[in-house]
Amino acid sequence: MGCRRVSDVGKAPVLFVSHGSPLFALNPGHTGPALTQWAAAHAPAHRIKGVVLMSPHWMTPGGVAVMSTPKPRTWHDFGGFPDALYQLNYPAPGDPALAGLVLHMLHKAGVPTAADDQRPFDHGAWVPLRYLYPQADVPVVQISLPEGFSTADIYAVGQALAPLRAQGILLMASGSMTHNLYELRREEGPTEPYVTAFCTWVQQTLMAQDLPAMLDYRSRAPHAVRAHPTDEHYLTVYFALGAAGWGQSDGPLPQYISQEVVYGSLAMDAFSLP
Prior knowledge:
Elements: E1 14-18, H1 31-42, E2 50-61, E3 64-67, H2 83-86, H3 96-108, E4 113-116, H4 123-132, E5 140-147, H5 151-161, E6 169-175, H6 193-207, H7 211-215, H8 217-220, H9 224-227, H10 232-235, H11 237-244, E7 255-258, E8 261-262, E9 266-267, E10 270-273
Parallel strand pairs: 1-6, 2-5, 2-6, 3-4
Antiparallel strand pairs: 1-10, 7-10, 8-9
């Protein structure tokens, strides 16, 4: 694949997806079908030449690691769930040439990088990809969330890879709009008010193109610490925003795909950026 251009491919969109609990793979709710419909309409497999995906379930110190294996395994990186979940497999190919291009672009941008030829797909990748590309026919390269990087640093990682969009590469961030696992409920019930307040602030801030506020979300967003006791599942959103050029003078506005809440406090927001 490498860095070839494809004449019939337009600029690929950017995607942020909340991947929720591993049970999302078995219980699609409203978000699973919404992702399938979005991909068919906006980023079909015959036009998308590859996916570069950042997941919070792969964190590396000091820089960004890049999956370079041609045949990534499906990793069931969780425990205590129904047996059916462990039988699922997502056999999408990797793309060493695309991985090499990602490494080159990040290195050129001054981002410390390293290849990883053993990395499997974690559930932050394969669970939402099952809904987007159920045939597993689009090559996927995972990249890690770099530990210790600020929101602005992660935004810059997205900016560095933004030119891949012109080659038909879908840049994707997988995370969670809220992720307080201490407050999950098994039974159905109303959404916790703090979840609504936090998600509303994020949406309003995105629509206002207020980059300084987004970068300083931990201080400015209501209930930010309660919504994210640890913030790795939120930080990936900055990769998507940087890749799309959101917050710049001519930046795009998000187009929401889903705003479902499950287990009372786990927001499944997903949006694309054209």
